Amino acid sequence: MTFYDIISIVVGVLLLGIAFMAINAKRLINSVLFLSALSMLAVVSFVLLKAPDVAITEAVIGSGLVTALFVFTLLSVRGRESQ
Amino acid sequence: MKNVFGFLISVALGIFIILALANTDAFPAFGDVDLTERISNAYLDINNVEQVGSANLVTAIVVGYRGFDTLGEVTVLFISALGVAFIFGGVKQKRLDLDFKPNFMLRVGSNILFGIILVTSFYIILHGHLTPGGGFPGGAIIASAVLLLYLADDRFRSNVKGFKVLEGVAGSIFVVIGLLGLVFATAFLENFLPAGTVGNLISAGIIPVIYVLIGLKVGSEIAGIVDNFLTEEESA
What we know:
The complex is a heterodimer of chains A (about 80) and B (about 240). Chain A is an all-alpha fold and about 80 residues long. Chain A has helices spanning about 5-25, 30-50, 50-80. Chain B has one domain (about 55-235). Helices cover about 65% and strands about 5% of the residues of chain B. Chain B has a two-stranded antiparallel sheet. Chain B starts with a helix and ends with a strand. The interface of A and B includes residues 24 and 68 of A.
C-alpha cells in the first residue's frame, strides 16, 4: 500500500465522518462549520484525483462563499430573534 | 441508536456501490482510463494544442473549443443574479441588522487582507490559460473579498451601480469579441489573434482576454448577489 493510497483512505473516511457530523450537529452554526470542513477535505480529494481546476472552484465556492453566506444568515436570524 | 443504524446503512451502501463499480468497464481503476476513448482525440492532439496555444487543456476546451457554451453559462449566472435582484431589490435599502459588532482588529485585518485576496484573484484570472483556475473561480474570489468587507464593517455598502455597469460592459465586450471572430475569421468566437508560444503569459490569442472579461463579470455579479442578500428594504 503506497503513501497515496493511505492518504486517499484517510481523506475518504474523514469525509464520511464529517458529513455525518454535519447532519447530526445539535447547533446550526456547528453544522455550517462541519460543512466548510467537508468542502476543504473535498478539495484535498480533488487534488489527489488530479483535478486542480475543480479543486480551486470547490475551495472558493464551497468553503468560502457558501459558508460565509450561511454564517451571515444565521447571524441575521439570531439578531431578529433577540429583538 | 437511530444514528448508529443510519451510519451502518450508509457505510453498507457505500461498500455496495464501490464493489459494484470497481474495475468494471464503466468504472475502471483510477489512472487506468484510456483518455482517447472518453474525449475527442482532437483536444489531445499536440498540433491542435499548439494551434490553440493554451497550456491548460481545460481552459482550451472551456474557452477555446466550447466558447459558445461558456457564453451560455455566463448568461445563466446573469439571469440568476437578475432573479435575486428582482426578489430582494427595492427602492430604499439598508444593511441587515446583525447580532454582531465587528471590533477594531477585525476591521483593520480585513482591510489588509482585502488587497491580498484581490491580487490573488487577478493572478488566477490572468493565468487561467497557463495554470488551473480561470475566470469563474477568480471572479468568485473577487466576490468573497467584497464579502469580507461586509463582514468587517457593519455600515459598509459596496458601489452596486458601478458593479452593474462593469458587468454589462464585460458581457457586451465578450459578445463583441465573438462577433469580431465572425469578421476577421469564419466563425463566432473563433480565435483570430495569433496563438504565440505555449506557456507564455501573452499567448493563446483571445482566450486570456475572454477569461479576464468572464472574471470581471462573474465577480461583479456575485458581489451584487451578496449585496442583495445582506441588505433589506427600509421599513416605513
